[in-house]
Write the structure tokens for this entry.
Amino acid sequence: MKILDDISSQIVEDYKSGNSERRIILQTIKAALLVKQKDQKGVLSDEDAIKILRLELKQREEAKNQYNSAGRDDLVEKIEKEIAQIKKMLPEEISSEQIEKIVKGTVESAQEKNFGPLMGEIMSKLGPNADGKTVAQILKKYL
């Protein structure tokens, strides 16, 4: 798996260069990926890794909001660095305009206008490079 291999090589580079802050972030992410790989009892695909990275990103963004509301600026700064590092590992997201075209076409061609099935169909067309929250907002606009 390319993503896990890239993270491992970056960790080695960070050991050599003394960048302990980034190394710790990468080790945490690698641990999450390895746990998922162990749960699946096999090799983790890059698509699965991207899903896990998106989940890790979402968790950190929620934590950042909680730290902000608690006035913990020290923790906000730390979590922002983690968020930035995870975003670097994720592939570029599909633009809102592209998502809107696919959503519009799917809704127009659908016989039933139910949110759940349409959302599943759209996400299967878009793949892992689309943010589910953005897709849901656009889909709600068309329903």
Summary: The chain has two domains: 2-89, 96-142. The chain has seven helices and no strands. The mean pLDDT is 90.
